[in-house]
Amino acid sequence: MSYEQVTVQSNSQTLKPTVTDRLTMGYVYPHAPLEIIMAHGLTPTLVRARPGIAGAFEASLQTFACSYTRNLFSQRANDQMPASSALLFPGNTCDSLLNVGDIWRVRFPDDIIFRLTYPAANQGEAAVHYLADELRSLSQSIEAAFGRPFSEEEFRDAAGLTRQFRSAAQFLYAARVVSPQVLRYSKLAALIHTFLLSPDQKSANEITNASTQVQRALARSRLLDSAKKIQEQLIKRHLTPAALPHGAKSPRIAIAGGMIDPGAIVALFNAAGIPEDALVMDLFSFGFKTVFTPPCEVGRDPFDSVARSILASPLEPTQEGLGVRLAFLKDVVTNLAVDGLIVCEQSFCDPDEFEAPSLEAEASKSGVAVMRLPIDPELSDRERLGVRLQSFLETISPRSGR
Amino acid sequence: MGQEERHTEEKVYRQLRANSLLQEIMLRYMMEGQAASEQGKLAWVTSGFPVEIPVTMGVNVSYPEQYGAIIGSQKVGPEICGFAEELGYSQELCSYARSSIGSVRYPEKSPLDGLPKPQALLACNNICGTVLRWYDAVSQMTGAPVFLFDTPPTEGDQPSHHREYVRQSVLRLIDFLSRTFHTSFSEERLRKVGELSGEAIDLWTRSLKACRNRPSPLNCADRFLAMAPIVALRGTEPAIEFYQALLEEVQERVSQGLGAIRDERIRLLWDDIPPWFTIFRFFNGLAARGVVFPADTYTHAWSGSLAGADLLDSVVSVYSNVYLNKGLEAKVDKMCELIKEYSLDGFIMFSVRSCKRYSLGQLVSKELVMERTGVPGVVIEGDMVDSRLFNDAQIQTRLDALLEMFL
Ligand code: SF4
Ligand code: SF4
After folding, report:
1. Mean pLDDT of A386-394
2. What are the φ/ψ torsions at residue B62 (nearest 5 degrees)?
3. Residue among B155, B138, B145, B16 nearest B87 (CA)
4. Average pLDDT value for residue range A28-44
5. Cα A199 to Cα A16, A45, A89, A159, distances in angstroms
6. Residue stretches of chain B with pLDDT short of 70
7. Where does the pLDDT of residue A317 fall: very low under 50, low under 70, confident under 90, or very high at 90 and above?
8. Rounded Cα gap, residues A371 and A301, in angstroms
9. What chain B residue is nearest to A347 in terms of C-alpha separation?
10. How far is the CA of A134 from the centre of ligand 1 (A)?
């Protein structure tokens, strides 16, 4: 089956193996091994928390499960989760997801659940070997469950596709740093989302076309080189002061927060009546983390290659390395002329809530205004959060003029 | 019967004589920690850390979780956690972590003037993922480097690539300690420390198993206090000294038919960490109603000892396979096993808001355990250190409902 034949699946009512020739694997943690899943003829599709979901978790999860997992669980319990043939849960990334994966198996015994356990320590080659073996065993389990063996050819196609997607998306990220108005943030978020929901040639071409158009626009305003340089530097995670056009708009806002959906950010900005141009970068989120994962190399052991690619993702997936993350944050806010940082936190999310005070302190040290924004996927407090956002922006406006 | 025993006999519970030795040993341990810190040889460790390695290498250790229990017992949890909250740490985070961060910020306002300053922070994620984040925060405040001993959670048998990865962690740890503390590792010394550790664990396990007797010689609070050396002093002589004394007393109680509480009528299992700030009031309140806890999942978590030809491999097995590093299924199995082995009538699950790894899933495990064992259970919610998160009236109502089933 070629990737063109894969169509975006509509929201059907239950998580059941689909009867078409297209099998899908929902994944919760952004660093999923897309290429391995696709090599088995399955389509990996990001399962996201969604607004407007009525709580249906209470009989299974206590209220101190993070808001993200509560939302996912409720989607499933309410039969509101987009259909997929199987789900992939991560292990060793956070306590909530680990436990919720176990609870899910008990509550929804007919669901096909896989678990991929990541290394949490920066343990060099040992971590690569470990993750490669985990991927191998995931691959065997997929084959056993669906009778679809690993195909080298599909793996190569998948690697090509993710490479194409990432390269285009990386450029768009960099382009928005130089000129946020060249592409709306919501458009970028939608392009990324479409690919993550259904990584196929169509969605990859869509983002590539957008990248080509933006390249043309930047070339006309002589900003193309500057954007390309930032793309390269973001890939290497070593930034120098960005060359921004004269009269660049202020304020320039960056967003941080582990599991914040770009769509939720857009909704908040809209609720606050703030133009999307103010948003120049999301850090540590689904978008950024996924997009800046280096491509996996073909022509060598595929499991080793995908393990290396995942482990070289920016700032994650290993949990060790707060110092590195803070250094990168400092690099971004100082070199990309950021005026304000919004640190989003999912409620009861240990990783977000532990890291927020350090992110706040680091950005403040660099002279950047910071606001912490507790958030849940339901955006239940949208109006109030919007007002907070608005007043935050007003406080940083006078800092413009960089 | 001694003077002391006669006095406590009138109470609903019997005080352990070994507690005075426990206090003495723990005081000595604290002082040693202080001295080690001054000499630049102190590491903070998490409760599931392979402590035999630093001990073998001459590095002293302190346990912030145990210090959290002290903060809880002294009923200053809300105040000390509040210091961390002032720094921006959410009240939704683990209260061991919050109280630790708070006491690092204001040692002079904390019990015992805070834990002695560490030169390294050794975290093992076999109990939870929180410990790394917590130690990262302390590292920001103290400048002490963090070492993560990574033990990916296992389901069923540990696959060989997990074992190999964790083994590499052991080697990396030895390297880290050598560089940080200018010390060296010797396998021979590890064997000796492992033997001491194993001996203490063996004595401790025998005391735990003695609770299969009716009446049970120990209650929950007894074991929660008595576990301090098994957590903090594994691999040292004082731990053995204490557990010998404890076992003697336990055996004496068994042979005399004396229980931990005066009138044992209902035998229950306790799941999770206890509410330290009300530990005596809570368990003695239940003891007054004839309820004893001959077993709990918390103190039974320290069981494996280092042995065999390949000691490093033994470190891998013991520390990867701790209770909290396994899935929900293993926790349910353990509870069922304890209920059967200790002839228990029911169980109480303390849903600790601080601790997602231990507590998330209890609503489901409660059903599974009831189904498999046929005994009733209840989930009560609260916290181990932060008494603001403990609603006494609500908890008592739930407990009453459970106890009514036994009348
Ligand atoms: S929101 Fe936080 S706690 Fe919840 S799944 Fe994501 S990282 Fe884990
Ligand atoms: S989260 Fe749980 S296991 Fe981890 S330190 Fe806190 S109480 Fe202990």
Report:
1. 87
2. -125, 150
3. B138
4. 95
5. 20, 8, 19, 11
6. 1-10
7. low
8. 45
9. B92
10. 22
Looking at the domain that runs over B31-185, which CATH code has it been given? Answer: 3.40.50.11890
Q: How far is CA A326 from CA A48, A234, A252, in A?
A: 26, 15, 19
The DSSP secondary-structure symbol of B230 reads H
Beta strands in A23-147 (DSSP E): 23-27, 42-46, 86-91, 113-117
Residue A137 contacts B where some CB pair is shorter than 8 Å = yes
The pLDDT confidence band at residue A395, using thresholds 50, 70 and 90, is confident
- A289 is written with which tokens? 């983390």
Model confidence pLDDT, tens digit, residues A235-245? 988 888 887 87
A72 has a pLDDT exceeding 70: yes
Rg (CA), chain B: 21
Check A120 against B359: CB less than 8 A apart.
Answer: no
Kindly report the protein residue whose alpha carbon is nearest to atom 2 of ligand 2: B355
A91 and A119 Cβ atoms separated by less than 8 Å: no
Residue A64 has pLDDT above 50, yes or no: yes
Q: State in Å: Cα A67 to ligand 2 middle.
A: 19
- Of all residues in chain A, the percent with pLDDT exceeding 90 is 61
Residue A400: pLDDT over 50: no
Residue entry with tokens 């990262």: B136
Out of 3.40.50.970, 3.40.50.11890, 3.40.30.10, 3.50.50.60, the CATH code matching A20-149 is: 3.40.50.11890
Tell me which residue has tokens 């995931």.
A138
pLDDT in tens, B47-99: 999 999 999 999 999 999 999 999 999 999 999 999 999 999 999 999 999 99
Instruction: Tell me what the pLDDT averaged over chain A comes to.
Output: 87
Q: Residues lining ligand 2, judged by CB closer than 6 Å?
A: B 65, 94, 96-97, 127-128, 130-131, 354-355, 357-358
CA distance A64 to chain B (A): 6
* Structural tokens at position A253: 């806002």
ipTM: 0.94
Phi and psi, residue A113, nearest 5°: -115, 130
User: Is residue B111 reached through a cis peptide bond, with omega within 30 degrees of 0 on the bond before it?
Assistant: no
Facing A62 at nearest CB: one of B165, B327, B381 = B381
pLDDT tens, position by position, B372-390:
999 999 999 999 999 999 9
| Residue of B133, B135, B151 for testing the chain A interface, max A β-carbons within 10 Å | B133
String of b and e for A97-134 (b: at least 16 CB within 10 Å)? bbbbbbbbbbbbeebbbbbbbbbbbbbeebbbbbbbbb
Beta bridge partners of B267: B292
* Top-confidence residue, B20 or A285: B20
What pLDDT score does B372 carry? 98
Q: How confident is the model at residue A303 (pLDDT cuts 50, 70, 90)?
A: very high
Whose CA is closest to A120, among B164, B321, B123, B315?
B123
Quote the CA–CA distance of B269 and B347 in Å, as a whole number.
4
A85's CB contacts (< 8 A; 6+ apart) are A16, A17, A18, A23, A24, A25, A42, A112, A146
Domain range annotation of chain B: 31-185
The alpha carbon of A65 and the centre of ligand 2 are apart by a number of angstroms equal to 14
pTM for the model stands at: 0.93
Q: Tell me the CB-side half-sphere exposure of residue A19, using CA atoms within 13 A.
A: 2
Q: Residues of B with CB below 8 A from A91's CB?
A: 152-153
Handedness of CA B299, B23, B70, B180 (dihedral sign): negative
Q: How many residues does chain A have?
A: 402
